[in-house]
Structures are given as C-alpha cells and as structure tokens.
Amino acid sequence: MVPLSWYLTLGAILFAIGVAAFLVKRNIITIFMSIELMLNAVNLTFVAFANHWHQVSGQVFVFFVMVVAAAEAAVGLAIIIAVFRTRETLNVDQVNLLKL
Amino acid sequence: MLHQVLFIIFGVVCVAGALNLLLQRHPINSALSLIVVMGALALLFLLLGAEFVAAVQVIVYAGAVMVLFVFVIMLLNAGVEEHTRGSRVAIFLGIPGLIAFFIFMCWAIGSNGSALGQARIGSFYVPTQELGIALFREFLLPFEVTSVLILIAIMGAVVLARRER
Amino acid sequence: MSLTTYIIFAIIKLAIVLFVLLTAVAYIVLLERKVVARMQNRWGPNRVGPFGLLQPLADGAKFIFKEDIIPDSVYKPLYIAAPMIALILALTSISLIPFGENWKIAGYHVPLEITAFWNGNGIQDINIGLLIILGITSIGVYGVALSGWSSNSKYSLLGSLRASAQLMSYELSLGLSLVGVLLISGSLSLRQIVDSQGGSIVNWNFFGRLQFIAFFIYIMAAYAETNRIPFDLPEAETELVAGYHTEYSSMKFAMFFMAEYCNMVTVACLATILFFGGWHSPFEALHIAAPALWIAISPVFWFVVKVFFFIFLYIWIRGTLPRFRYDQLMAFGWKFLLPLSIANIIVTSLVLALRS
Question: What was the ipTM of the complex prediction?
Fold first, then answer.
C-alpha cells in the first residue's frame, strides 16, 4: 500500500528535474534527452491515475505519448545531424543564426 | 510494506538517475542515466499493474529511442559540454517559474493526498488483451492518426538527414 | 510450496541451468570449430584430449591467465562495464525460457523454468515472458555500442556504429515476425505458446499453421541480432580487425564471446518454443507406449534435440554463406524482411478472422 500522492510527487520531481536540465544544459542532445525525461514523468502520472480510477484509457494514452516521443526523437535527431553538418557544433548558444 | 520498500528503492533510483542526467557534463553519461531512469520507471509501472506498458517502455524507450540517442552521440563524437554563459531568459524567468511550478504541484498533491487514496499491488491489473481491445475499439481514430504522424516523421527524418546535392 | 522450498528449488535450478549453459557454450565453440573445419577439409582442434574434447578447458585456462590490458586512452568506467552488460543481459534472458513440463520431485511440483513457480493448481509463469525477452535483447545493444565507443579506437567505433544501426533495423522485423505466432496462440506466455502446439506435429506453428515465412524472417533477424555470419558486419575481421571488441583482451574478451554464444542458445530456444512445438515430441500423435522414466525425461530430451539442431544450423550457415556488404544488409532488412513480415501478419490475421 503506497499513497497515490507518492507516485504523483515522484512524477512532479522528475518533471521538474527535466525542466531544470532543459534550461541549464547547453548541448542539443542533452536538451532533447531532458524532454524525454519530462515525457516519462508524464507517463508515470498517467499510469498512476489509471490505477486510481481503474481505467484502461490512462495506459492507452501512455502509448500515444511514446509514439509522439519516438517520432520526435527521429525528427529531432535528424535535425541535430543536419545542424551539426552545417555548423559543426552541438552548443545551442552557437546556433543562433537562421542562415549562414 | 513490500510495495513501499519497492517504491522507495525504484523512486530513489529514478531521482538519482535524473539528477545525474542534470549534473553530468558528458552527453553519453547523461544518456546512460536516462536509461536507468527509464528502467526504474518500467518497474514502477509493473507495481501499478501496467505490465504491457512496462514492457513497451523498456522495448521502445530504452531499447530504441535511447539507442538512437547513443548512436547520434557516437556518430557526431559529441564531447564534454562547454561552459557558456547560458540564456538570460532561462535564469531570470525559467528557474523561478520552475520553482513556483514545483511548489504549486507539491501543494496541489499534498492538499489532496487523502482524497487520492492508496495504490495496492494487484488491485488494478490490465491484461494485454484488454489493453489491445481498448486501443483498437475505443481509440481507433487516435491510433490511426498517430500512425499517420509516424509516417510523416519518417519522411521528415529521411528528408532532413539526406545530404544535399 | 512454502517460500523456503521455493527459494531452495530456485537456487538449485539456477545452478543447474548456469552450469549446463556455460558448459554448452564452451562445447558449442568446439563444435563450431570442428564442424567448420570439416566443411573446409581440415581437421579442427584435435591435440588436447581425445578428439580435442578438452580444448574448451585449455581455452578457458588461457583466457583466465592472460594479461588483462586496459589501453591508456579508453573511457574506463564504460570500458569495464560494457562486457559485463553484454554478459549479464545474455544470461538474464535464458532465465525466462521454459525447458519442459513440470516435474514432481519429493511431492513438489517443480516447473522447469527459473522464473516460474507452482501456485497450488497450476504453473504460474510470467505472462508477458516473450515481451520481457524482447526487451532484454533490445537493451543488449548497449554492451556492443558502449564497448566500441569507450575503446576510443576507430575500428571499434565503426564496429559499434554498424552494430547499433544493424540491431535497431533488424529488431523491427524480429518483433513483427513473432506477431503471427502470438495471433495464433493468443498469449504472450511462452508456456502457453508451447501448450497451444501440443497434440501432433501438425499443430506446430512451422508445419500445420503455415508460419514458415515468419520462421524464416525470425531466423534471419535473429542471426543479425546475434552478429553471426552472414550478418557479422560489426566484427568483420577482414575490414575492422575485430570490430567492437578489438581493444579487449583476457576475461573481458571472453565475456563478449560468452555473451554471443549465450545469445545464440537463447535464439535457438526461442525458435524451438515459438515455431517447433517446444518440448512436444514429433511422434506425439502415434501414442507409443513408453516407460514412466522416459515420459518424464522425453520433453527435455526433445527440447534439447531441437535446440541442438538450431545451433548446428548456425554453424552450418557460417560454413556456407559469405558476409553481406553493409548496404546490402540494410536493404535486405528494410526493403525485404520488413514488408514480408507485415504481409505475414496481414495474411495470418485474415486467415484467423475468416476461420473464426
């Protein structure tokens, strides 16, 4: 028996760490990973509420989140490769021009 | 009791992995700590009775998405992060906003803690079949829309990653 | 069954499976060298012991006593962790494989599977066992990827880049090829999949249920997953020295070696369970009278025979086929295996829907 609020608090902590990493990190790949961390925290909240309301739909939504995350990773990493090819850096501070 | 012990172990692993992601300066260490977080989350999903979601979490996230990240890190030979000044908006707006958001979340969860009740092992258990029926009957339209989304993402990735001639 | 007896039986099963598996791995290496040698008109190892049967022991001793070199420029934590990740994951997946029906020993029902238990009226095994095995194999790529990256050598890096791209591509076809079997048996539990194929040889998924296309896709994708010829691009010795484990020596190299052969055994076990009726005898429909001892042992016997056949198939193919080129490998995976596995799912589900 674990209070549901523990799961939600864990989700909130993970989400907050994800946001903090998104703000602090300067490497594009790490920034992308912190977005994945935030999505994972949301997944935990979805599953916890599915358990609370005894509804399958909460778990189905996790699938949609995963699909979006996978699509985002594919496109995002392709963008990162394209950016690296033209600028030869992964630091977001140096990627501040729309056109070279 | 067992549930609490397991929750605390995996919860601590999750938070430690997430903090490690934040503190490490090399992207591959961050990626590996994120994989640890995902594994621990999969075990928490098992505790909440979502066995199929847990398996998919490991297969899709840890086994596919993160492999892609590690692959790109290896391909671009990403080194240790450089120290730069950072964004001013992030420091003056982002961090206070984040702290305010976190305090609000904790307050919202804490003030409703008793109303949320308890989670028991085995009180809610979704067999794979039931999940499949829900996915392909009630959520058929969203399912089809996400498949279109995946298709567009694949085409976008191919176009973006292709070398211009 | 009380908790104590459960734990005792679990430890005994663990010890037996580990011993048999590691011995088998050592002798599969010998078998491979012998068989490939015969296919190439050579003798193979025949100096240590009768017919070279003690060769694995000599090899093991050599691995243990060699100097363990850690090159200067490696990234040490990952360099040391990578072979362990590979071996641990390879050993974990075998613990989910059921080897036969339950045995009755001293009044206890003992299921022949490490992660199963007797719950009073039936064997309880993990009901998503197949998914967990898929998950573990999908994480297994990190051992290869990290070893190449942390070695800080270009051959290793090229090998691990090839490996991660190859493993990701073939995992798709591997997963989709199993969907047909899952549709037929309606379960993700390995034990139930085997039970659904009982009765006679016609009920095996390969023969009576027309999953031979799925089997072909599975075996091709699994060969790519285990980095074996004709898909051993990550460790192609003519191009990349030894690929991702170029910089490894002594026990760390042995760990990669053992992990590769353990994965081969797991793939062979899964092929047996999913497509060839698991521990069911091919002569089951004839109802031949047999002594009680044989009835107890025969499931394990048939299981081992089938697994041995698939391991021999690995070696046979190694002695027969040349290596693919890398673009051919990718084209084969994405343009041939993937559409074929999707077509297999569509046809299987159509047949099942029309029949019901």
Answer: 0.87
